[in-house]
Amino acid sequence: MRKSLLEYNRQELNTLFQELSQPQFRTRQLREWLVDKYCSDFSKMINLPRQLREILSSQYQAYPLEISTIQRSKDKNTIKFAAGTLDNQIIEVVLLKYSYGYSVCLSTQIGCAMGCVFCASARGGLVRNCTANEMLAQVLLAEQLVGGRIGRVVLMGMGEPLLNYDQVVEFLRLCQDQDFGLGLGLRHVTISTCGIVPKIKQLAHERMPVTLALSLHAPNDHIRKKILPVAQNYSLDEVLDACRYFFQKTDRRVSCEYILIKDVNDSRSCAKQLAELLKNEQMHINLIPYNPVDFLDWQAPSRKQIELFADILRKAKLAVTVRRQLGNDIDAACGQLRRREQ
Ligand code: SAH
Fold first, then answer.
1. Which of 205, 214, 217 lies closest to 254, judged by CA?
2. Is 182 within 8 Å of 136 (Cβ atoms)?
3. pTM value?
4. How many whole angstroms from 205 Cα to the centroid of ligand 1?
5. Closest to 301 (Cα-Cα) out of 270, 276, 279, 330
6. Which fold has domain 3-61?
7. Is 65 helix (H, G, I), strand (E, B) or coil?
8. Quick check: CB of 331 below 6 Å from ligand 1?
9. DSSP class of residue 186?
10. Ligand 1 neighbour 129 (Cβ under 6 A)
11. Which of 60, 21, 25 is nearest to 40 (CA)?
């Protein structure tokens, strides 16, 4: 298995170049190619001596991931790609085009242990955690594909980010790092969680100004327990309390994701309970029409039902957006591409 030079830290690169009898500034040059210029082709790194480029090409891989398939939606606003890891796993990444630029939706784990009943990633359980550098490589490959910088990073692909805590925090540091990383402000990064209470509190203590998105998906514990097994461990009260704590410590509002699934959590009564539950919370609510998964029976409610649900929340003076459905024609819902590839 070849080693990836993106995974080398400064010290390790310095040592490598020393062994190759190269000056220390090669570390900076190489890192600029890999990260600032999102270049993974050693032969194009023209300020490195040709012989060195040849040695690197023959012995190393630039990134720990290589793109294997790319799908583009008909309207060209969604790109989804699958990338193979060094140990032959598949990671999926989704790129969404908005008016402000591209947002990239990353995977933080291969597979997922959470078992949410509506989610394709839950099938097959957790394979392993992604490393911080595999997360970074997902951003860099996305930048290669669109030929420019990514404006927003969301940790909403496969996996539960807060159960891969150390690598996710390391990735956040790489996002922030002006010198060795992306130089991307953490205000442009969102972490989505199904609600791992102690980890939300731990993240609050890092004092990192990321946006936390809570996958709420139900207005009461009864429905939540039916669709999110993690709700057996943490009640809604505890989860909302942890979110309030995060807001206090970071001054960053938590946003709330609510996928609307037909006949499961989309009734008027659910909307009213949700309005009541969140009336004193400083949360923005993102309603997401369920993205059907081919081997599961769940469906999205009708357009009319979605609007009705949103209206009840708006009338209760909650801040609501209905997420437009992107990439339906290319299976951009969690876990789907990886399944197809395997
Ligand atoms: N584990 C984290 C992040 C990954 S999932 C979390 O639970 O938040 C990202 C979001 O997509 C979650 O809100 C998840 O519930 C949602 N999701 C999963 N499958 C979906 C589907 N088929 N349609 C719409 N949203 C889905």
1. 214
2. yes
3. 0.94
4. 25
5. 270
6. DNA polymerase; domain 1 (1.10.150)
7. strand
8. no
9. G
10. no
11. 60
